[in-house]
Structure formats: C-alpha cells, structure tokens
Amino acid sequence: MIWDWDYAMEVLPTIVVDGLRITLIATVLGSILAYALGLVLALLRRVRNTVVSTAVWAFIEFVRSTPLLVQIFFLFFVLPSFGLKFDPLTTGVIAIGVHYATYTAEVYRAGIEAVPPGQWEAAVALSLPTRRTWTAVILPQAIPRVLPALGNYTISMLKETPLLLMIGVLDVVGVANQIGSRAFRYVEPITIAGVLFLLLSLAASLLVRWLERRVRISN
C-alpha cells in the first residue's frame, strides 16, 4: 500500500502547526517588506537627482538579475563577516522582501505612469505641495491599479519560501521532509505539503481575481 491514511493523519497536525505557521510568517512579513520598500524604490526612481535615481535603478537591476537563493546565502553566510547577523527566519524574510521589492517597484512605477497627466496638472494648478500631491492625488489612483499584480507577487513569494530550507528554516516542505526522514516514509508528508501549497495558492489566486473585479468596477 503506497498511501497510509493513519500515518497521514498522524503527521498532518505537525506539518500544519509547525511548517505552515513558518510559511505564512515568511510570506506575510516578506510581502509587507516588499510592498513598502518597493514603493520607496519607485519614488526614488522619480527624484530629479540623477545620482540617486541611477543608483536605485542599478540596485533594482542587480537584484532582479541574480537568483534569490544566492541572495539568501549572501545575507546568511557573508553579511556576518561584516558584523551583520540575523537568525535564519529574519534573514529569509529580508531576502524575500528585498528581492521582490525590486519587482513591486516596477509595478508601482507602471501604476504611477498610468495616472492621467491631467491629474498632475490639476495638482499644480491648485498649488498643492509635493507631498500632498502624492498622498492625496497620485498614489490613491495608482495603487488600486496595481493591487492585482502585487497579489500575484505574493503568490510567488509563498512558493519561494521552501528556498529558506537551505539556511535551516523549516517551512511546510522542511517539516515534511524532516518527518519523512525520521520514518523513512516521504509519500504522505511531501504530498500533504504539496496540497497545502496548492490550497494556499488557489485561495490567494481567488483573492487576486476578486481584487481585479473590484478595481475594474471602481474604474
């Protein structure tokens, strides 16, 4: 018998409580960092200081052009040589957040550029301060347009969390693999891990589609 339901039910709580919790923590915190830092990078790309905008552009292209796993290893194994050391989960959150911030920055940039020029002209005509223009006019119109794309990146971040196993973070896959190695039986725990990822991805996809409909209706 390939599949043992009794064994599957026995290991399911451990995979959910221990592994799924870490997966969700890494995904949520990584997403928050990616969204916040991505917006900062997008705004810095638009500053009139050529040195700043060029440096930000170079940083974005460098991070986007290197594998996430290499960045995880760099943060975990190289940074301690310079006096910066974080626990594995924190390192993973930073790596995922910074990596995807470079992608969300481009999404924000596209959303900002999609705001009609008339909105900028109206803000200038009303003599609104720059900060007020951004917070009251531009961003409230730009961010709803890019919410679906940001949601898709959240799904991608969810599926990248197993990479953190390489630095000792036991997410769903890590816990499933650990359980399988103890009993020398991998079918049930790895399958359960795959199903959990599938369910989370489907739920996130449905949420993204709902956001798309809401944005379409509001526009």
Describe this protein with a few key phrases.
219 residues; mainly alpha; 81% helix; 8 helices; flat; 0% strand
Assembly type: single chain
Q: Give me the strand/helix succession.
A: HHHHHHHH
Strand tally: 0
User: Structural class from helices and strands?
Assistant: mainly alpha
Largest sheet: none
| End-to-end Cα distance | 55 Å
Unreliable spans are none
Helix content: over 70%
The overall pLDDT average reads 90
The general outline is flat
Helix count equals 8
Tell me what portion of residues adopts beta-strand conformation.
under 5%
> How much is the radius of gyration in Å?
21 Å
Write structural notes for this entry.
This protein has about 220 residues and is mainly alpha-helical. About 80% of the residues lie in helices and about 0% in strands. The mean pLDDT is about 90.
